[in-house]
Amino acid sequence: MALLRSVATVGGYTLLSRVLGFVRDILTAAFLGAGPVADAFFIAQRLPNMFRSLFAEGAFSAAFVPLFAGRIATEGRDSARLFAEDALAVLLAALLLFVLLGEAAMPWFIQIIAPGFAAEPGKYALTVELTRITFPYLLFISLVSLQGGVLNSIERFAATAATSILLNLFLITALALSRLWPQWTAHGQAWGIAAAGFAQFLWLMISCARAGMALRLPWPRLTAEVRRLIRIMLPGVFGAGVTQINLLVSTAIASLLPSGAVSYLYYADRLNQLPLGVVGIAVGTAILPSLSRQIRTDEAGAARHTQNRGIELALLLTLPAAVALAVAARPILAIFERGHFDAAAAAATAPALAAYAAGLPAFVLVKVLVPAFFARHDTATPVKIGILAMGANIALTAGAALLLAAPEAHIGVALATSAAGWVNALTMAAILRRRGHLALDARARRCLPRILLAALGMGAVLLVAERLLAPALEGGAVLRLGALVMLVGIGLAAYGVLALAAGAADWRDVRRRLRRQAA
Q: Which residues are paired to 341 by β-bridges?
């Protein structure tokens, strides 16, 4: 597998999706702002995504992709396709039951995930109503996860990476239509999420067929391979559950803070997710099938090389993004200032963005390191590490909520999340190193400190540029946008020059590899 090309494919489509998501978030801020309705919608959006991460994209994919890729390598595509069909049938049956139960128990779910909303009956009732609309998204996106695992395992990354584009297009369309019925903006967004899930499922069903992997739907059967999948998956469910409990704790505490705290954290997290999705998820997705095959065929050296290049590429792109988000948080949030999202909301969101940015390299490293466990069918160790990170997050989040005054308490929630991310990443790296599965080679040891140096240098340049552009950054909407584009350009140019000067990246080597892959 050409790692750089695969990462570029996944990252390119993800970047397009994130750009559309950025547009969507600007429109969402303008139409919903950061008040009670926005808080209700963001909880309604978060709940199905939480269970999706718990059961599907997290634990299920982690167990399914190595088994499916290994089966292709040893028994061929036809045998692997039959395994995927059996897994699809069992997954669909389980999800149908779960979604029905979830719809019935929705008021109870909301009391757990957002206990603070109970003090505002109207807000609580709206959250329950919106979440019942969005919850079926879990069913379709989980099936999309299986279809995507099939395509990624045969190195067809483009179709899967493009699915999130559909979600953003549906939500942007719903926002555009809400101009006709502004009182139904939140409901339109909720229905847009549900419809997008069905569209994503149809898109990948067609993509699988075109790739020669059309999946039929047999009667659900707990075959030996499906039972093995479940056995490997269960520890992963608990591992993903640790991460989701972290999110649950953060959300629950935010719901107890003054109205708008949930929204501030949502907007900050969405901006932080841009580099996380483009880099971390792209690299993690690209290396998992390759690692699985290399480990299955006892190519330990090749597996370590793949892991090293993944870490190197991830940090080359992530460290400057983290520094830029932290330094330029306020100018970035300024472009959201329109409609119901005013200057006060932007000012409250900016420090939360900087706090999340502090943990961005850790979040990306976790995405890159986890495949080293999953490719070896080890889903239990990430669970134990996650429990440690969860304990740190709960303690730090609760402490921040108690120590910080109400207007700043949401910043402490974001800082606690970042700290827990570093606990997770560093512990994971230490265990892989102790087992002999992670050893930085000479190239990585040379490049990584220089990447950090170049990123910090870029941050210093951005601080100076931000002061020089301050009048424009505080002007009208068009002037602010132009100044921000200029600030981004200055940052990119500075990082490129500093990275080359410090020897953080050998662009001749990158160009040579790209040419070799294109040949």
A: 338
